[in-house]
Please model this.
Amino acid sequence: MSLSVEQVKDVLSKIEDPALLLTDLIKHRLIGNVDVSGSKVKIEVIYPTDAYLKPERDELCDRITKALTAEGAKKVKFDTRVETAFMPPTSGQVLLPGVKNIIAVAAGKGGVGKSTVATNIALALRDFGAKVGILDADVFGPSLPTMLGEPEKPPGTASGDKIVPAIHHGIKVISVGFFTDPKEAVVWRGPMVHKLLQQFLGDVLWGDLDYLICDLPPGTGDVQLSLSQLIPITGAVMVTTPQEVSIVDVVKGISMFKKVEIPLIGVVENMSYYECSKCGDHDEIFSHGGGKRLAEEIGVQFLGELPLDARIRFGGDTGVPIIASAPESDFADRFRHIASKAALEIAGRVLSQPKRSKRLSIIS
Model:
């Protein structure tokens, strides 16, 4: 039995993607070239993020094979590639022309492990194969230089007064902590902070990145407002601990993001519980489940929960985050799961929107 290209595409339009949960692979731009020769079919599958993991990739190809075999195909072959999905900005100055997706990692209050989450999400995306950078936007309390340890390559300068970011664990990093005395407080007014962020965005040679992770300061202040004005933030990941006092502050942060029209990607609950490494006793020190309930109430993804564990803390204090120090551990798996869900959420939203052909720059 011979098949036509139109018949194959009709079959593909009825298949649901197992990772993105989007039906119609053609409409959502997950299929490239389709070649048909009699009962032999060759299909190009386009994964919209490196965080689309192997089990789901195998499941997608299996669904396609079964559906086409039922229509008479005798042999189905696949070509696959990753093409990171992103939505070009509609207007305004493009300070980061080579950066596809900008993920803000935020918290309503300090001390909830926001920088730990930001760092390990970045490293997880790197491990998946993505090109990643981190912008430490916590101007008054930069912690990434400590959490990432000694760089493989320190920050520098290039011709034209451009800044070359540092390289830590294979990712590009910039932080005010590289340029200030760690013993001295940064005492700046809002306009100075805005100018610094402009420089970190426009004067840093970020190059081509699939994801730029922005580690924001806690709360709702000048940095958040400046970034929302300067760059098209793809979405925000909110980090909270389970107790009510943290949830209340997260709600305020979510309200701020709505006002500046930054979509929320999802919620991470950190310090969700403590499990004794010796006896296995499970203790919910800060209550449990507050982050998941909040995500359900506001209608966004609950990206995952993380335990309170000395090994995660130790990794940050020594400059070797848990993803790098113990990549086979359950903790590393949890961070990879969170990073994958966040990247897939972004890809799903992008592919559900009409395609825009190119980035637009400001017209002078």
User: Anything to note?
Assistant: Confidence is low (pLDDT under 50) at residues 358-364. The two ends are 59 Å apart (CA to CA). Residues 16 and 124 are 26 Å apart (CA to CA).
